[in-house]
Amino acid sequence: MKAANSRGSAPGSSRARILVVGGGYVGLYTALRLQRKLKPELRQGAVEIVVITPDPYMTYQPFLPEAAAGSISPRHVVVPLRRVLDQCKIVIGEAQSIDHSKRTATVTTLATDEEGTGAIEVTYDELVLAPGSISRTLPVPGLADHGIGFKTVEEAIGLRNHVIEQMDIASSTRDPAIRDAALTFVFVGGGYAGVEALAELEDMARYASRYYHNVTPEDMKWILVEASDRILPEVGEEMGRYTVRELRGRNIDVRMETRLDSCQDRVAVLDDGSRFPTRTLVWTAGVKPHPVLAATDLPRNERGRIKCTAKLAVDGATHAWAAGDAAAVPDITAEAGKECAPNAQHAVRQAKALADNIAASLRGSPLEDYAHQYVGSVASLGLHKGVAHVYGRKLKGYPAWFMHRVYHLSRVPTFNRKARVLAEWTLAGLFKREIVSLGSLEHPRAEFELAAGGRPPKESS
């Protein structure tokens, strides 16, 4: 890639390259808005937008629990970047390090892996850091071997297949120990991801059990482990307590102020002394900043996030911007010293402000502060069940579930995706759920390898 010559100068004098690192909420929405704001400059070739992302799509993570439960098709949970960002250059790869003093990013791509030539250097004029976050794990014995994450669409669909496969195992085995382990599902983490994933999958498994002659909802054990004294803190204490009552009313074992000590040999051992033989352990205990942030020369706070100003510019660095999970942005609507929460609500709105400020910077116009008062949260607890705390109003049950769907339908990008998701929800209301495991998709060559005389890959489940 050729380096641009300008350093934030007005478009028209030379091409200014805007490098967006990350294709998640912030990366997609920022690049999408920049396409619109800088349409004349892009047409003239005065500006170039390059997006570096490990996947050719953006995953709308609030829909992952519904995808896992089969309410939404996996392809409708993701937004294809090349179609939406048709005025941008999409590079499928990962930024390994960034030297902002030299305006260069070291990037590995699928091609560099094939060629064996090592990473390439990409130069830029304006940097947007939006790599998001990764799962935060702890040194729990056995976690790396047996844990399942819930942050990508692949993990969500893999978990759905896995749960149904465990029901198949329990239905066909004569060994009570294997049956008990197959029907025990342990989720660690009482935030959005953990609670929504558990609630949706339990709802799906409860429905699926009617098609098994020897598996009932009472046979299954669903366990939620949370280290703090409350779950879903975003929806408030009262709604958190309601959620606990709702889950326990469905025979889900909710254990607060409890930690996972070990999961070696497929046995979940909790710090209260409980032991659960299980073939399913889902880890959703928080996230941490993406490793690329530590490989930059930009200032970070004590939590590893990039220090930013209220204008979403990196504090103390010119021509560098950040937002979302990667950024520590001051919340000017709250008391001094408080930062914006790293959630989707802020990320989407920050991306809009970020794109506007980059365009203003290139044109020599004044920048605006990012200000958004948090309006509340919604969470789904399965089909027709939910909790919400929005604009001071507390909702539960069907109204909260309906608000959850309406809100996220309004937030998912592009009219195309909105229409497809709405159509699926409508059809799901008219017909019965599809309960089928397509676990073989994870090993598509297994049958051919066996036919050709080789050994099929060993199943992880």
TrEMBL record:
Residues 17-351 form the FAD/NAD(P)-binding domain. One of its GO terms (molecular function) is NADH dehydrogenase activity. Pfam families: Pyr_redox_2. Keywords: FAD, Flavoprotein, NAD, Oxidoreductase. The keyword Nucleotide-binding does not apply. The keyword Transport does not apply. InterPro entries: FAD/NAD-bd_sf, FAD/NAD-binding_dom, NDH-2. Transmembrane segments: none annotated. Belongs to the NADH dehydrogenase family. This is FAD-dependent oxidoreductase. It comes from Streptomyces boluensis.
